[in-house]
Amino acid sequence: MAVLVLLLYGLAHAYWAFGGDGFPFGADDANPEYSAFEHVGRDRLAPWIAGGFLGSAAVALLLALPGRRRIPARVLMGASVFSAAAEFCTLADFRILGNLVHVFMLKFGAINWTVVNQLFAVVAVGLMVASAIIYQRRTSGACTGCGRTDSGAGWTSPEAAARWGRRAAYTAVVVPLLYASTRWAWALGIPLGISEELWEEGKKDNLWIAGAALATMGALGSLLTLGLVRRWGEVFPRWAVGLRGRRVPLSLAVVPATLVSVLVTIAGVSTSGCTSREPSTTRRTTGEPRFRR
Predict the structure, then answer these.
(1) How many Cα atoms occupy the beta-carbon half-sphere of 206 within 13 Å?
(2) Domain annotation covers residue 292
(3) Domain annotation covers residue 272
């Protein structure tokens, strides 16, 4: 699957590199002021992106081939990590997360061709990273599903995982609540951590109300994280009509958590200086800093 998706997207960029219509990045971005390549045209950018995705398709193919390989595992793993990092630091940004919020609010107007392509790129590279993880487990003799070995020792052993997993779950609950507390404070009229001028600007557009709503969603999601270390996260509770007493599928917790963590990481990377974008005024979509060159 990873090979096919990466290959098709690489060919799409090759099409754009040869003059095809619909290139979504750089100067052709729907909102170029948010792009790391705001002033880079299709003729220069599309060939590089095409080469990157076609190269990633080749790496994914090597990861999927059975038997022994002449290329060291570290080289293939390193290429996968480099490809993911390059995509996260250049093509994807906070707009994916912001548009996801709009989807939950049944507001689809902000979704544009650039965001669709950003999401597709993230999925493509994510499939390659998943292939790399399975490859590493397979070549090291570990279980391809959980990563554990026959020895049962190390950080993946049930005893060790129970210890650090509990700490990680509690941390994952506390950190979003700290974030949410600032947004709730702004909505209540307390300019916690920001200037009075910035708070007044956001108040005029009801920006802090939207930010508080987003923070509340994050807080509720963080509380669900407790299900990873609580009984109700393993077996559906009594009030779950039709599911009471059944085991909670592992994918029900892992898939949404992975999706949100990846999108939050991308948003964090795009605001941390990985690209040349710098915070300025306010972004009116999710109550967070807006960016410009």
Answers:
(1) 3
(2) no
(3) no
9 and 117 assigned to the same domain: yes
Q: What is the pTM of this model?
A: 0.75
* pLDDT tens series, the chain, 293 aa: 899 999 999 999 999 999 999 999 999 999 998 888 989 999 999 999 999 999 999 999 988 887 656 778 888 889 899 988 888 888 988 888 878 877 776 777 778 999 999 999 999 999 999 889 888 888 877 777 776 776 666 776 778 878 888 898 899 889 889 988 999 999 999 988 888 888 888 888 788 888 888 788 888 888 888 888 888 888 888 888 888 888 888 888 778 878 877 887 887 777 665 554 444 433 444 444 443 33
Residues near 46 by beta carbon (within 8 Å), at least 6 away in sequence:
13, 14, 16, 17, 23, 25
Gap between the Cα atoms of 44 and 174, Å rounded: 44
Is 43 within a domain? yes
Domains in the chain, number: 2
Task: Dig out the tokens for 195 from the structure.
Answer: 């200037």
Whether the Cβ atoms of residue 260 and residue 94 lie closer than 8 Å to each other: no
